Design the sequence.
């Protein structure tokens, strides 16, 4: 039993990595094996604090013996234990470090996955940091031409922004998903993303931005000729006419029912705010245009 005592394994490993008058070279290879054994044993007895430290040291050891892949794996284990311990800053740091190590191996997918794992672990405790991790995860994939693999990450980031009531950011994330989908000819995902962005703006009671978003997206032929475009057009027309019942009817359409759950929930709550405000804005815009024509 003493042979597998994780405390003794750690002490032995630490001695092998420290230089002294009798030890001129650190033996990281042997030490790393001991750190790994200690980490497994600590985890088995649910001593998460010591297991986390052991995995951190095992990761450092794998780095020292030029094995970034194994170093990344251990760093992910340390990050998962940091979550169990509620060490939220460490969760972020460890999964970021794991991502960097996977990148050293030239592996963009695991590098992105590591950031996404960190983001999921932080969604409730630190949603702002979670979104940053999701964003970085998307960028890694896009830089490697793997845009399609970023779709779910953009959706996850959008959900967080909606929970935080940061609707402009949420719509921006949907538009970025649309751009990623455009790059890989994922037409259905692209059109759904654009309609989702329009719905988010309408939910935030920003009719002008919803209209602008629709006009901008309509420059893209695949959207202009899509069911999602026709649905958005019906919604915007109903808003212009101040027809709350028509808005509710469109919100229950099959086109909207096929969007992400978080977007469907927003659509089913439309209209928000006072539709009279939109009528006033429309009138003011028309008057401003008339004045410009006169001048």
Sequence:
């Amino acid at each position: 039993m003493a042979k597998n005592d994780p405390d003794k394994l750690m002490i032995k490993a630490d001695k092998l990595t420290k230089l002294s008058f009798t030890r001129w070279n650190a033996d990281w290879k042997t030490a790393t094996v001991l750190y790994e054994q200690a980490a497994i044993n600590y985890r088995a007895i649910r001593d998460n604090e010591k297991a986390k430290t052991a995995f951190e040291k095992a990761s450092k050891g794998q780095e020292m013996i030029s094995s970034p892949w194994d170093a990344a794996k251990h760093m992910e284990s340390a990050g998962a234990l940091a979550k169990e311990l509620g060490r939220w800053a460490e969760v972020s740091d460890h999964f970021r470090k794991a991502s960097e190590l996977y990148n050293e191996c030239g592996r963009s997918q695991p590098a992105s996955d590591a950031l996404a794992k960190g983001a999921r672990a932080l969604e409730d405790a630190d949603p702002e940091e979670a979104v940053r991790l999701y964003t970085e995860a998307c960028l890694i994939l896009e830089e490697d031409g793997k845009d399609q693999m970023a779709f779910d990450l953009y959706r996850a980031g959008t959900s967080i922004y909606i929970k935080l009531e940061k609707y402009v950011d949420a719509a921006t994330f949907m538009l970025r998903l649309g751009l990623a989908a455009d790059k890989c000819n994922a037409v259905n995902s692209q059109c759904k993303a654009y309609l989702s962005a329009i719905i988010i703006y309408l939910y935030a009671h920003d009719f002008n931005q919803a209209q602008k978003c629709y006009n901008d997206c309509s420059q893209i032929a695949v959207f202009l000729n899509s069911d999602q475009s026709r649905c958005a057009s019906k919604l915007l027309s109903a808003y212009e006419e101040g027809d709350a019942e028509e808005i509710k009817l469109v919100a229950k359409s099959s086109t909207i029912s096929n969007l992400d759950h978080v977007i469907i929930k927003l659509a089913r709550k439309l209209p928000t705010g006072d539709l009279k405000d939109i009528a006033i804005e429309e009138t003011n815009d028309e008057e401003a245009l008339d004045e410009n024509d006169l001048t």
Remarks:
- Residues 166-269 form a domain with the Serine Threonine Protein Phosphatase 5, Tetratricopeptide repeat fold (CATH 1.25.40.10).
- The mean pLDDT is 92.
- The chain has 17 helices and no strands.
